[in-house]
Write a structure and sequence with these properties.
It is a single chain. This protein has 146 residues and is mostly helical. 66% of the residues lie in helices and 0% in strands. The chain has six helices and no strands. Helix 2 runs antiparallel to helix 3. The chain is flat and about 40 Å long. The relative contact order is 0.11.
Length: 146
Amino acid sequence: MTATKKPVTKSKGKIVGKLKTAADIVQLIEQIIPPEQVKQVVGWLKDQQFSDKFIELTKKIHFQDKHDLFAKVENQCDAVEELIRTRSSMLADDAPISAWRVELEKIRTGTELVKEAKTNDTKKIKALEKRASKLYNSVFIAVIGK
């Protein structure tokens, strides 16, 4: 008779245990940031001389219409495009600007294809949201890191 032992695992809590990537952390923060803190972030963006268009898109990302399934993806894509347009000269020489543009085009094409399918494929929409969030975070971090 051999008894099998279960591996001992420590519970990290319901929320913390699910956070596996930086995108998960950003998504959690987006869910719990009160509106007055978003105003502080907007103030900081203005102080850092980000364009008004980028600031408006950032507000839309955080205060999006829940009924428009593609709003967040489209706003994040527009924000990435605006960051590349206005801040590319300030980025490091090895910044993957062309890779970002390729990924941006793939996300936009995917969005159009899912829209044209005329069925709400939640799985595909969530995948597009995840890709757009990852791209947005990557570009934003590169911009503020310089």
